[in-house]
Design a protein that fits this description.
The complex is a heterodimer of chains A (about 300) and B (about 160). Chain A contains eleven helices and 14 strands. Chain A has about 300 residues and is α+β, with helices and mostly antiparallel strands. In chain B, a hairpin with a 2-residue loop joins strand 3 and strand 4. The chains are: A alpha+beta (about 300), B alpha+beta (about 160). The complex binds FE2/S2 (inorganic) cluster (2 copies). The site of one FE2/S2 (inorganic) cluster (FES) has 10 residues of chain B, from loops.
Chain lengths: ~300, ~160
């Protein structure tokens, strides 16, 4: 299907030039990173920008470094880059685990983490991991730099806190203290599929937890109620049941071609149970290797 | 909108072509450059039949604008095995891996990329690497078997002899 909507294409080499282009087009320009969502939307007519600003020529957005306890992931970092990064795999394994479940190799070679959170579809695999790592989204725009905690980033279906003349330049993840974690994804089969339910979990030695979901509400979110129930107590069967009961109340999955509402509800409980156990076991050093499917 | 002339190195040859910013790479390859191995299947990134190597990595050419590839290097199935079939292609033949063949160019490129990065993949790694390449004929088993076979050291021309 050809793209029938015409637009201008720019590929600036400097961030300032990209920002100037976004500014002069006053919301009529779209940032093009991997394009794996945007090109589909252009074909379908869902997006109709007057201009595309391709950021793949901007060197400073390539950054991927852990410095002073902070991982900085530049807007150009693709999922393949994240998966192949020793730092991500070693220090942020839940993000690594989630990145490996995104679409397929050919998509991951193009699609970026920054683009993924800007598309903000409800089932985006990267969001639960970013939520449990308490990521901060760094934006640049005419007003300078803004830093938005990931908890305030997703404001609605495909809607984020980004202004049209702003651009995500990086995503920052503070290095957490010793933890065990997991990303559990329910697809219709192993391999390329959108999540029907996604859960990320981090367990800490003091029995505190960070838990977040995707695909079971209009926006991905932390599950504060579940975290509170679990906090400070040893993980026992009765406690897990309580946590699952609370989780069922906190999510509002939809029914679509991929799964019914009831199935998602049911599986969310099973995934939470297995995820909690796996995260605790990984914290203790006895869990299955990261990347092992828990379903 | 502004027409531009882009330069691509395709299967070793430098080609220039005039494109609109909205021209999608798969259409430019097929309709303007006459390269027919990448196919249009789903046209939205799901099926992998439009796969080409862009600067050494598989991409879905239905999700890439031609202008984005300007100055880049593209390899399609036409550029694989130009000095005789690769061990992978021989294995596909030996295993009768394809029926209609519609998925074959994409699968071949995806498996080529896998074996370049990971010379000895596990069966699960093979499945994951071709998870984005849909085949409606074979049930995948003969494809996976062939990739596994091609990865065996005996079939690897490039493996250093001990
Ligand atoms: S045609 Fe490109 S992935 Fe299906
Ligand atoms: S052989 Fe027909 S689609 Fe794969």
């Amino acid at each position: 299907m050809p793209i029938t909507h015409p637009f201008e294409y720019y590929k600036p080499a400097r961030l300032v030039d990209a920002l100037a282009l976004l500014h002069t087009h006053k919301g009529g320009a779209s940032v093009l990173a991997g394009g794996t969502d945007l090109i589909v939307w252009l074909k379908e007519g869902v997006a109709a920008p007057r201009a595309l600003v391709d950021i793949k020529g901007i060197k400073e957005l390539e950054v991927l470094e852990l410095k002073d306890g902070m991982l900085r992931i530049g807007a150009r970092a693709t999922f393949t880059v994240l998966i192949e990064s020793k730092i991500v795999r070693g220090k942020f394994p839940v993000l690594w685990e989630a990145a490996r479940t995104v679409a397929s190799v050919g998509v991951r070679n193009r699609a970026t983490l920054a683009g993924n959170i800007c598309s903000a579809i409800p089932c985006l695999d990267s969001a639960p991991a970013l939520l449990v790592y308490e990521a901060v989204v760094v934006l640049q725009g005419p007003a300078g730099t803004r830093r938005i905690p990931i908890t305030e980033w997703f404001v609605g279906l495909k809607k984020t806190a980004r202004q049209p003349d702003e651009m995500v330049t990086s995503i920052e993840l503070p290095l957490p203290k010793k933890n065990g974690g997991c990303y559990v994804k329910l697809g219709r089969y192993a391999g390329e599929d959108l999540a029907q339910v996604g859960l990320a979990i981090l367990a800490f030695a003091d029995n505190t937890w960070r838990i977040a979901h995707c695909a079971v509400a209009p926006t991905p979110q932390r599950m504060a109620g579940v975290e509170t129930i679990l906090a400070g107590k040893p993980l026992a069967a009765a406690l897990i049941s309580k946590a699952c009961a609370r989780a069922a109340k906190d999510i509002s999955p939809i029914a679509d071609v991929r799964a019914s509402k009831e199935y998602r509800q049911h599986m969310a409980g099973i995934m939470l149970t297995r995820g909690l156990k796996a995260a605790a076991a990984r914290l203790a050093g006895t869990g299955p290797a990261y990347g092992t499917s828990l379903l | 909108m502004t027409k531009t002339t882009i330069t691509l190195k395709i299967n070793g040859a430098t080609r220039t072509v005039d494109v609109e910013p909205s021209d999608v790479l798969i259409e430019v390859l097929r309709d303007k450059l006459g390269i027919k191995s990448p196919k249009i299947g789903c046209d939205r990134g799901d099926c992998g039949t439009c796969t080409v190597l862009l600067n050494g990595q598989t991409v879905r050419s239905c999700l890439v604008l031609a202008v984005e590839a300007d100055g880049g290097e593209i390899v399609t199935l036409e550029g694989i095995g130009t000095d005789g079939l690769t061990p992978l292609q021989k294995a596909f033949i030996a295993h009768n891996s394809f029926q209609c063949g519609f998925c074959a160019p994409g699968v071949t490129l995806a498996a080529t990329e896998l074996l370049r990065k990971n010379a000895q993949p596990t069966r699960d790694e093979i499945k994951e690497a071709i998870a984005g390449n849909l085949c409606r004929c074979t049930g995948y088993t003969p494809i996976i078997d062939a990739i596994e076979d091609a990865a065996k050291p005996a079939n690897k021309k490039t493996k250093a002899k001990k």
